[in-house]
Amino acid sequence: MRVLILGGDGYLGWPTALRFSARGHEVSVVDNFSRRRWHTEHGSASLTPIADFDRRIEAWHEVSGEQIRSYVGAVEDGDFLDEVVAETRPEAVVHYGQQPSAPYSMLSRERAVETQYTNVIGNLNLLFSLRDHVPDCHLVKLGTMGEYGQPNIDIEEGYIEIEHKGRKDTLPFPKLPGSLYHCSKVHDSTNIHFACRTWGLRATDLNQGIVYGVETEETARDERLITRFDYDELFGTVLNRFCLQAVIGHPLTVYGAGHQTRGFLNIRDTLACVELAVANPAARGDFRVFNQFTEQFSVLELAERVKLAAEHLGYSVEIQHLENPRVEKEEHYYNAIHTKLLDLGLEPTMLGEELVESMIHAIERHKGNAIESSIDPHTRWNPAKSPAAQA
Amino acid sequence: MRVLILGGDGYLGWPTALRFSARGHEVSVVDNFSRRRWHTEHGSASLTPIADFDRRIEAWHEVSGEQIRSYVGAVEDGDFLDEVVAETRPEAVVHYGQQPSAPYSMLSRERAVETQYTNVIGNLNLLFSLRDHVPDCHLVKLGTMGEYGQPNIDIEEGYIEIEHKGRKDTLPFPKLPGSLYHCSKVHDSTNIHFACRTWGLRATDLNQGIVYGVETEETARDERLITRFDYDELFGTVLNRFCLQAVIGHPLTVYGAGHQTRGFLNIRDTLACVELAVANPAARGDFRVFNQFTEQFSVLELAERVKLAAEHLGYSVEIQHLENPRVEKEEHYYNAIHTKLLDLGLEPTMLGEELVESMIHAIERHKGNAIESSIDPHTRWNPAKSPAAQA
Q1: N or C: which end of chain A has fewer CB within 10 A?
Q2: Tell me, what's the pLDDT at B104?
Q3: What does the alpha-carbon distance between residue B362 and residue A318 come to, in Å, rounded to a whole number?
C-alpha cells in the first residue's frame, strides 16, 4: 500500500514510517524539521542522539533493504503539499505534521498563532489535496484526548447520542479543549468532519492519550534509527519526564495536587493503533473517531509508580508539587470510553513496573545529554494569575 | 463608552458604528477594505453606491457632529491590532472583521485558507490583545446560526444540558457547520470559549441568522451614509437577492427544493441586538451565546412572499429552482431557540408584506447598478458531483 506520513521526522512519525516500511508498504515521508528548530530555539533537545533525516533514511535502507521516499517542506505550503500528494498518490495518509505541544501554544500570541496556523491550515491544505487527487485515500489524523477536556459525563468516541425534548440525534461529542494547541485539534476535527460529509472523504481521527516510551521494534534495530525522546517543559510528556527526572536526580515535578486524570499509552501501542486504523479503513464519507489510549492514571499515581520502580533500581526519588501552570480541574470525574481499537484487535501494553524499569534503563544510556534547565515549567496558562511561591 | 468596531466599513459594521456614535459613544473602527476588494476581484459590487471610508466618516461628522476614529489595517496583523486595542482601550469590541461568505470559502483551496486564516487568526489576535490590554472589555462577536447546521433536535443557545449514563453536564452545543466559512466560525467560538475559561475574558457570541434589509435609522439620514447591499452569489444573502431579482426581472433563484429552513432577521434588529448585548455585558469569565434571529422561514416560503409583494407592486415574478450547489439537507427538522435577546428586551421587526415592499422601493432607486451576471451560483460545495442540468 502507498502510505504517506506527514511529520515523518518526529517522535511518533519516524517510528511509524519504519513500521509501515518494515511491513513492506511503499512509504513516503514529509517533514520540514520545525520540531528540531523549536527545540533549538528553546534551549532543549532530544535526550536520544537522533540522526539527521537523510542519514536515518539511509541507515534504514542499509538495515532493512527498504526505501523511504522523503519530501522536505511544510504542510502549510499548500502548493508543495499538493504536489507531494499528486506525485505519491497515497492510499493512506498518516498526519502527524503538526505543532504538538500545549505549553508551546500558550507561550505568547505569536506562538499561539503559529500553532493554529501550522495545524489548521496544514490540515485544510491536506483535505483539498485529498479531494482533488486521491478522494478514495484514507486519512488517519492524530487528534488528542485533550480535545474533550474534563466534562462531568463519560467521554464517548467522537459522537454522543443526545435525547432532547423528545427528539434524538447522534452528534459530535462536545469539546472543552484545555489549551490553544488542543483548540487547534478541535478545529481540525471540525474541518475533517465537514470534508467527509461534503466531499465524501474517509477519515479516522485518533484521539490519542499521552504517549510514553523510548523505542519500538524497528528503532531498536540500529543506533542510527533511534527516535527522539523529550522531557523538557514544552515537548516532554509527563511519564517520559518523570523517568528522566528519576535518573538524573531531579524531583518528579507534579503540577498542582496531581489528581488530574488522563489516558496514557505506550509508543508501541501508538504504532499498533495506527496500523489497525490503516488496515481497517473508514468507509467513504465516514469521519470515524477512536479514543486511542490503553489506561487511565492520575499524574500523582504515575509519579508514585516511577518513584517505586526507580527506588527498586537504587535511585532515591522525591516527588515535588509545583504550582500548577495550567488552568485545569485538579479534582474531576474522568471516564473515557476506548473500546473501538480493542474491537479491531489492539492488545494493550500495560504500564507495569518492569516497563518503567526498562524505560529507566534506556534513559540511563543517554542521561549525559540531559539539559536540566529545560525541565521546570515557566509557561503559565494565565499570566495574570500572580506567580505564587512554589510548594 | 469606548466602543471598537472591527470590520466597520461593512454591511453591518458601518451601520453599527453609526448607531453607537449616534448614541454618544466614543467609536473607533478598523477595516482593511478586503470586502470591497473581494467584490472587485469577482466582478460584483454593492447595489447601493457606497462612499469611501474617509468620506463616509466625514459625512457622518457633518450630519451628526460626532467623530468616528478610523484605523486602516488587517485584524490578521497581530501587531497592528494590538496597537489599536492598546490605543483605544475599548470597553466593548464588536467584531465583524471577517470573511463572511460561505460560497466564497468553498471556491478553492486558496479561498478556504484565506477565510480560515482571516477569521481564526484575526480573532485569536484579538483575544490576546484583550487579555493583555483590556481584560475587562466585553467582546461581542458575530457568529452564525450556520454553526449548528441541521441537527435533528432543537437548537439551544450555545449550550445543552446532557444527561448521559446517569451523569449530567451542561456542555457546548454540538456543531455541524455547513461550509468552511461556517467551520471558521465554530473555530472562533471554541477559541473564545477557551479564552473566557482560561483568562477570565467576557464575551457574547451572537449566532446570527440571515440578515435582510437596506437601511437603518442612521444610514437613511444622508445619501453618503448608505450601507452596502449585495445580491451576488458570493456575498448576497437570500432575501436581499430575491428582492433585487424581483425588481430587475430575474427569476427568484431557489436552490433545490427550497425547504431548507433558517432563522432570519432585519438589519435594524441586528443593530438592536448588538446594542442590547453591549448594554448588558457578559460577566468576567463568561462566554455567553445568543441565537440572534427573529423568525424562521424556508427559502421557498421567502421566495413566495417576495413574489406576492412584488406582484402587488405590478412586477411579474417567476420562481426558478436551480440544482442546489450546496451539500445540505433540503427536508429536515429545524427549531432553534432564540429567547435570550427577547428576554433582554428585543422588539422584533417582523417580515410583513409592507416591509418587503419598502425593500423593493429602496432597491428600485439603485436598480441601474445591478450586475446580473454576478447573481447565479457557480460555486459548488462538491465539485466532484457532476453538474446536472438546471431545472
Answers
A1: C
A2: 98
A3: 77
B268 DSSP assignment? H
Query: How many domains does chain B contain in total?
Result: 1
pLDDT value at B387 more than 60: no
pTM: 0.97
Residue B391 covered by a domain: no
- Residue B386: predicted pLDDT: 55
Chain B touched by A386 (CB under 8 Å): no
Question: Is the model's pLDDT at A214 over the cut of 70?
Answer: yes
Amino acid in the structure at residue B369: N
A170 carries an active-site annotation: no
Sequential DSSP letters for B101-144: -HHHHTS-HHHHHHHHIIIIIHHHHHHHHHHHH-TTPEEEEEEE
At B200-212, the pLDDT tens digits run 999 999 999 999 9
Q: pLDDT of B346-378, one tens digit each?
A: 999 999 999 999 999 999 999 999 999 999 999
Whole-angstrom Cα distance, residue B231 to residue B225? 19
Determine contact, residues A97/A6, Cβ cutoff 8 Å: yes
Contact yes or no for B4/B95 (Cβ under 8 A): no
Statement: residue B196 has pLDDT above 60? yes
Would you say residue B220 lies in a domain? yes
Closest chain A residue to B122 measured between Cα atoms?
A113
User: Average pLDDT for residues B46-70, to the nearest whole number?
Assistant: 98
- Return phi, psi of residue B230, to 5°: -115, 150
Give the domain CATH number at A60. 3.40.50.720
Give the tens place of pLDDT for each residue, A261-313. Answer: 999 999 999 999 999 999 999 999 999 999 999 999 999 999 999 999 999 99
Taking 50 as the threshold, does the pLDDT of residue B258 lie above it?
yes
What is the structure's pLDDT at B385? 78
Separation in Å, CA B54 to CA A60, B16, B30, B68, B318: 64, 16, 12, 10, 41
The range of the structural domain enclosing residue B85 comes to 2-374
Cβ(B199)–Cβ(A382) below 8 Å: yes
Candidates A112, A116, A164; nearest CB to B153: A164
**Is the residue at B386 inside a domain?**
no
Residue B266 bridge partners (DSSP): B212
Any CB–CB contact under 8 A between A198 and chain B?
yes
CA dist., res. B173 & res. B161, Å (int): 9
Using DSSP, state whether A2 is helix, strand or coil: strand
- B320-to-A143, B34, B254, B303 alpha-carbon distances in Å: 44, 32, 6, 10
Output the CA–CA distances (angstroms, integers) from residue A147 to A87, A209, A343, B4, B289, in the order listed: 33, 10, 23, 32, 21
B162: nearest CB among A82, A162, A179:
A162
- The answer to whether B45 and B61 are in contact (CB under 8 A) is no
Q: Would you call B382 an interface residue with chain A, using a CB distance cutoff of 8 Å? A: yes
Amino acid at A52: D
Per-residue CA distances from B143 to A211, A301, B25, B181, B274 (Å): 36, 42, 24, 11, 12
Nearest CB partner across the interface for B128, out of A82, A112, A187: A112
CA distances from A110 to A181, A371, B134, B285, B304 (A): 13, 25, 19, 23, 51
Is residue A363 included in any domain, yes or no? yes
